[in-house]
């Protein structure tokens, strides 16, 4: 909900009045009742403290909302047993685990895959093809689930992911593998966003903090076991099992969800549902995102930064994104991303820090194994084991944060404190040694992991407290979109920085190692030839490892800068009370029409 001080006169009515009107006219609108007081609800940035200084409409709004909260309501949480809740959440987490695992399981396998297919350029794109397709399709999955219902679309996403995993496993060349990874990413994006949306539909704001904390553990657990599993499969069997492992797990997860997940099914006719999708918005956001990322990927590696190819990709990508925004504002009846979500400064700050957090987090899971293999000279399996302190500390931190949100109702201190520690942790990565020093390696990862944990889902709680009930699904999808875009860009930019830095060291490598070895360790060839570094002995090995370490330190400086920017943005996040009351959300075209009729865009027309 946008702050009343920044709302233009004549804009939409306060959210509680809108929701009360909506529930009186149709059963298809969802109500989340007014917040009940909770300990630890406010801090120095609390809106209650700030707004209570003057008389304003929000005081009457609060009284009206509290009266509404005291009325009897249909609370789905009270109608479920603990066993039912456990089975539902467990099944959702199993589905999420699949999608999250495929971001990290290939980190230790990528050098082997790139070497087998003799494709140095594929080193980055094996990872980014998945995360890019994942991110680009997230808003579409969220909107389609609004139209056709959560359960059906979640099962569809799992099916797409299953097909993509099968194609990855049987790939015969790098092009086929990258295409199959994109199919995987499309399904994985649906899984990621729909798990969060389903939890939002199932639980009140106060309870969501706890269950979102559990999903944070899933992300952390996948980060921990992914590289290890990838290393085991690559060294002991074949890298193809990084994808085959998804087939039985996704099948069992889909069957479990089919039987246990009980959410509203609108039974929307296929034709009418497809007509309701904002296809122009979908195409422009996907096209614009792809062009920008291709421009970043090609710049300084395949083409000079000032080449026509790179400039055109970046410029036309930006223009296409501008067309997307224009379409969402003026023409889209059911926007992919409702832009009125960005009217509130606290919400914008949450999206910014979410981007920075995801941008930095994925770099640890993706690039630390390269440090272990290229600088310390360990195997792909051991590089996954070395990553465990990072993932375990992250998991514990996420779990504690979810418990604290449910216990105290406070999320602001967790967001800001986590980002501060994350900035410190990644700053320490600059000091990672060129020879094994296990005290530093373990300690630095623990500090970084503790900082990352709280911000897996705490920003989503902050975003949902500022969103009106009818916009919860769109806000959640936008949150997931920002997070996945950040991971896509992070892998690409990290690869570009590393490749450019290795290329800048080429003259020295030519002098010390000769032109043949220098070519293999320069630019975008370096990451895919990381195994070569381990085979070099004496001074040659020392020089090659030193070049890798120098390049990785430059890369970590970039990630520290993003972490610091996210920390600055977190200072603008406001604390609000977290309600314990909840009513299940109703999906379908009838609900969408009700929202559109009351939307700010329509009120302005």
Task: Give a brief rundown of this model.
Belongs to the major facilitator superfamily. TCR/Tet family. The chain has 605 residues and is mostly helical. It contains 28 helices and no strands.
The level of helicity is over 70%
Q: Would you report the number of β strands?
A: 0
In round numbers, the mean pLDDT is: 78
The ordered string of helix (H) and strand (E) elements is HHHHHHHHHHHHHHHHHHHHHHHHHHHH
Domain count, please report it: 2
Structural class by helix and strand composition: mainly alpha
- Tally the helices: 28
CATH architectural arrangement of the largest domain: Up-down Bundle
Strand content: under 5%
Low-confidence stretches: 1-75, 598-605
CATH class of the largest domain: Mainly Alpha
**Termini, distance in Å?**
20 Å
Q: Major sheet, described briefly?
A: none
- What CATH calls the topology of the largest domain is Growth Hormone, Chain: A
Overall shape: it is: globular
Q: Name the CATH superfamily assignment of the largest domain.
A: MFS general substrate transporter like domains
Q: Round the Cα radius of gyration to an integer and report it.
A: 24 Å
